[in-house]
Structure formats: structure tokens, C-alpha cells
Amino acid sequence: MTGLLQALGARTLLAMQRFGRAALFFIDLMTHLPPVLLRFGLVIKQIHAIGNRSLVIILASGLAVGFVLALQMYYALSTYGATESLGLIVNLSLVRELGPVVTGLLFAGRAGTSLTAEIGLMKAGEQLAAMEMMAVDPRARVFAPRFLGGIISMPLLAVLFSAIGIIGAWVVGVVLIGLDSGNFWSLMQSRVDVWRDVGNGVLKSFFFGVVCTAVALYQGWQAEATPEGVAYATTRTVVVSSLGVLGMDFVLTALMFSAP
Length: 260
Known about the structure:
mainly alpha, elongated
């Protein structure tokens, strides 16, 4: 029994130490953001590397989700004779929930692992150490532009995911099934609130961008300078980022949409 308590205590202390290091890394990263704004060209390069190179998977996934969601909602709504609400249901599902969450998970799997591997390889190749030897702070030159680029890219990708998903739902509902196009769009426009629905979805994706990018950079920073260490760090990035997105989604949904 004593050994079990000791093992549990050791694991708890180790988890607290890791959480403390991650928190200090995040705070230090935030302090380096204002100077990066004066060199916004670095951020633009990272937006292209992180966001533009994730665009294909985001658009393809959004279109597929729109197709499937429209079919599933049509079958469910036709049971109650409410197929005219298809556009509204799909829109709310995408902009409130599926758009930000699925984009966050895809972002963690594509851009997050790329960032972790890049930072891990820079550490393994002693490039970060060489920058410190030349009195160049890696957090200001390497980490902060990538962090800000990820935060900016995530909401843009989430908006594009939702937009292409709605178009996919229109193709299925109007072109394939034969619903009225005017009714599809008009009900959507009259019932979807820009600030409460679309705005809260964009705000969700902003927080998801902070979580996914910070986790990816921290895992790359903490990765062992070996091929196995970098591979393990990229795996941790996907797991931790995905759990963070799902957990934060529940909290944000409860805060944003609980009140009438």
C-alpha cells in the first residue's frame, strides 16, 4: 500500500512539474508577441506555411462533412416533415460546433505535427543552441512568429471549413434532392445570428488555435534530440492538442450557449 501511494505521489509531482513548465513556457511566449508585431513579415510567412498548406485538407473535409451532414439531416427531418429547415440546421451545426472543432482536430494533425517536427529537428541539429550563442532569442525569432501565425490561421480555416460545408449541403439539398433554393438560404439568413452563432464559433476557433499551436511548439521544445524523441513528440502533440480542443469545446459551449 505504501509503495502504491509513493508511486501515485511521484506521478502527481511529475505531472505538476510538467504542467508548471508548460505554463511558464506559455507565459514567456506571450511576452514575446508584442515585438513580433514590428516584424510582421515573419508572421505572414508562418501564416502561409501553417494555414495555406493546410487549406486542401480543410476544404476537402469541410465539403465531405457538408455532404454527409445534409444527407443525415434530410433523412431525420423528413420524418417530421421539416425538410425546409435543412439549411438552418446544417448552418448552425457547422458554425457553432463542427467547423471549429473539426478544424481544430485537423489543424492538430497537420500543422501541429509539422511545427513540432520542425522545432524538434532544429533542436536536434543544434540550430536553436547556435542562435542562443549568437545572442538571438529563439522564442522571439522562431517560436513567437509561429505562435501568432497559428492563432491567426485557425479562425480563417474554421470559417472556410464552415463555408464550404454549407455549400456542400446546398449541393446535396438543392441540386441532388430538389429542395427549394430560396427557402434554403432565406431561413438560414433569418435565423442565424452573426454575433451569437458565427461570432462565437470564430471565438472558439481562436482559443483552439492558441491551444494547438502552443502545445505543438512546447512539445517540439521539449523533444529529445533524437529521431525517436521527435517522433514521440509529434505523437504527443496530436494527443494533447486533440484532448485540449475537445475539453475546451465543452467549456466554451457551456459558457456561450447556455443562456437563452
